[in-house]
Specification:
The structure holds two protein chains of two kinds. By secondary structure, chain A is α/β, with parallel strands linked by helices. Helices cover 33% and strands 20% of the residues of chain A. In chain A, the strands form two sheets. A seven-stranded mixed sheet of chain A has the order 6-7-8-3-9-10-11, with helices on both faces. In chain A, strands 2-1-4-5 form a four-stranded antiparallel sheet, with helices on both faces. The longest helix of chain A has 18 residues. The two termini of chain A are 37 Å apart. By secondary structure, chain B is mainly alpha-helical. In chain B, 78% of the residues lie in helices and 0% in strands. Chain B has 14 helices and no strands.
Chain lengths: 353, 314
């Protein structure tokens, strides 16, 4: 897997700088007494400074687990890092000492978690929660940190910050709590912000606000963003690059427009077809198609392409051999897919009998 | 906050009144007639009749209750028939002994149980966890009277470090008082520590797996800061509940332990009173215990208030 992933790594950013983050063949497992769940199975990709990467996939695809594992935030045991490297600014996060890793967490890598209801400590004022990383990583005193926390709350457009800083999480709405999470994640001006389903628990309108806010803050701070979601619409709105994950593997990745216009993995196609097309006039809209079947049992992952059993385009080879993540013929630069079949040709053959 | 407090206070008054009624009514179910018990060997009907008249024993139940509760409100809980002493005086004399024992036992329980529970949750599944659980199981399954006797054997008889029994008031000699109280306090605290450890462990395990603890770790906080700042407070609610209940139980007197160590506390007063049909004493002690329970519940509610900011708004 690792030998296959190296040629598929995109070239360094146009400025010639090394990538900010380079994930190499990351493997994560969860073991209990009598079985091992292979949650992440050799994920490799790079992320450049300032890039926004949207990672999509269904529950259990490994999209959240692999970013948590990068910072060793999964519970271990039962979780364990079964292999790979995660180079952040040239250092391998997986082998960093605990103390060094803690400087990265919340310092140069900020996190925004899903479900702002449960991700904030209910018995601590939001001010103190925002101040914590400032005092820890930037060595600010209580007064300076408090002043900065008010500024951060202003920055994420929480009204009346100076007064509300001493309130508790339950005194804020869901959208406001998500803004507090973002203020916390951005407090130390990280090089990378990881947002894990950050808008999933929110109303659609609030979701749009939060996405707009992150885009704005990104322009201001210039950080790279990994945005994990199962909402393709959100990815289209925010990301430069999209990465589709399934069964702990990267199925396809590339520039958002190219992947959405010209999908090369049947799984990506399935996800796109399950979205309503709101641009078509009412009455001419097609039925939504679902992806039949269920994801594989990750205690015994299939030997070949994990999506093959649900894929009507699957070839015999798909069932036996793992396809590498490579640039398919005719795809745009940086557009990679893991598929033995030629999806555009198969679709063309279907529509013109 | 004030409104909540007043509201709780308002519910306490009917609770105490109801408790006093139940105490008084249940007392009537006890077999035996105090007038006959008091009238001596001959049981002269005239004496019995006189006693009945004097203590209003011929009046209907509600009237007798009214006499009693009216007295209680004026600080007069009647007189002990056996000891010829006002009940209030007996309670005032014994309560501090029991209170001191309860406070010391609680302190020991918290000092052992809470840190052990926290450590066993943090090191869940490791040697530390198993050790703590074994100690807790031992604490739970050791009868207090047996542990008391064994400790007396070890520390008083074998080593001669501590007195075997007896009680010295702290006003007389604080050092001797503490020497006499430490063993019974440890015996009582030991079994509560075990329960407390289990509750603390369960609460901590739940908090440790919560999303906000993951958030705290993602901020780069050290394990110690995560536990101290983000876990302890949120894990304290079930421990407060348990603490209030156990403290109330301690205050109603620890009969066996007081017996083993010859400590003149509530437990002994109560049992002597029951055996001698000393109704006024039983009523007084039970009323006192019930009121203490209710007050401790109020204190626990106030503690939840300090721990859980969500309650403060309403």
């Amino acid at each position: 897997m690792s030998d296959l992933s190296s040629p598929s790594s995109p070239a360094p950013s146009p400025t010639g700088k090394p990538p900010l983050l380079e994930v190499r063949d990351l493997k994560v497992e969860f073991a209990d007494a009598d079985s091992v769940v292979h949650a992440v199975n050799g994920v490799s990709y790079t992320l450049n400074e300032g890039e926004t990467l949207g990672i999509v996939g269904e529950s259990g695809s490994g999209k959240s687990v692999h970013v948590l594992a990068m910072l060793r935030l999964i519970p271990m045991p039962p979780g364990r890092l079964a292999g790979g490297q995660v180079l952040f600014e040239g250092r391998d996060l997986l082998t960093l000492s605990d103390a060094e890793l803690r400087k990265v967490r919340g310092g140069s890598i900020g996190f925004v978690f899903q479900d702002p209801m449960s991700s904030l400590n209910p018995s601590m004022t939001v001010g103190r929660q925002i101040m914590e990383p400032l005092q820890l990583h930037l060595g600010m005193g209580a007064d300076a940190a408090r002043k900065r926390a008010v500024e951060l709350m202003d920055m994420v457009r929480l009204p009346d910050a100076a007064r509300r800083i001493d309130q508790f999480p339950h005194e804020f709405s869901g959208g406001q709590r998500q803004r507090i999470m973002i203020a916390m994640g951005l407090s130390c001006r990280p090089k990378l912000l990881i947002a894990d389903e950050a808008t999933t628990a929110l109303d659609v309108t609030v979701q749009a606000d939060v996405i707009e806010l992150v885009k704005e803050l990104k322009r201001e701070i210039g950080m790279a963003v990994i945005w994990i979601t199962h909402d393709l619409g959100v990815v289209a709105g925010i990301a430069d690059t999209v990465q589709v994950m399934y069964a702990g593997r990267v199925m396809e990745r590339g520039p958002v427009d190219d992947v959405f216009r010209d999908p090369r993995s049947a799984y990506t196609l399935g996800l796109l077809r399950s979205l309503p097309d709101l641009s078509a006039p009412i009455g001419q809209r097609r039925r939504l198609t679902q992806i039949d079947g269920a994801p594989p049992d990750m205690r015994a992952p299939p030997p070949g392409d994990p999506f093959a059993p649900r894929n009507r385009y699957a070839t015999p080879r798909c069932f036996t051999e793992q396809p590498p993540l490579v640039q398919p013929p005719g795809a745009a630069p940086g557009h990679l897919a893991a598929a033995w079949y030629d999806l555009p040709a198969l679709i063309a053959a279907e529509t013109t009998p | 906050m004030l409104r909540f407090f007043l509201k709780r206070l308002a519910t306490i008054i009917p609770t105490v009144i109801l408790a006093s009624m139940i105490i008084f009514a249940l007392q009537q179910l006890l077999p035996g007639d105090p007038a006959i018990a008091l009238s001596g060997e001959e049981k002269d009907p005239e004496v019995v009749a006189f006693i009945r008249e004097k203590y209003h024993l011929n009046d209907p139940l509600p009237v007798r209750y009214a006499y009693w509760i009216g007295g209680v409100l004026h600080g007069d809980m009647g007189e002990s028939i056996r000891l010829q002493q006002p009940v209030a005086q007996l309670i005032v004399a014994k309560f501090p002994v029991t209170l001191q024992l309860a406070v010391m036992a609680m302190a020991i329980a918290v000092l052992i149980g809470v840190p052990m529970g926290v450590l066993s949750a943090v090191y869940n599944g490791k040697a530390m966890d198993y050790t703590a659980n074994v100690i807790a199981l031992w604490g739970l399954s050791t009868p207090n009277f047996w542990l008391g006797i064994m400790l007396i054997l070890l520390f008083s008889v074998q080593l001669g470090w501590l007195p075997a029994s007896g009680y010295v008031p702290p006003t007389e000699n604080l050092w001797e008082n503490l020497r006499a109280m430490i063993l019974p306090a440890f015996v009582l605290g030991n079994s509560i520590a075990a329960v407390m450890m289990r509750h603390t462990r369960a609460a901590m395990l739940q908090v440790l797996s919560s999303d906000y603890v993951r958030t705290a770790r993602a901020k780069g906080l050290s394990p110690r800061a995560v536990i101290v700042r983000h876990c302890l407070r949120n894990a304290s609610v079930p421990v407060i509940t348990l603490g209030a209940l156990e403290f109330g139980a301690l205050l109603s007197g620890a009969l066996l332990t007081e017996q083993v160590f010859s400590i003149p506390g509530f437990g002994k007063l109560m049992v002597d009173a029951v055996f001698n049909r000393d109704y006024a004493v039983v009523q007084g002690v039970v009323l006192c215990t019930a009121t203490t329970y209710i007050l401790l519940n109020l204190i626990a509610d106030l503690a939840y208030f300090l721990v859980n900011p969500k309650l403060r708004r309403s």
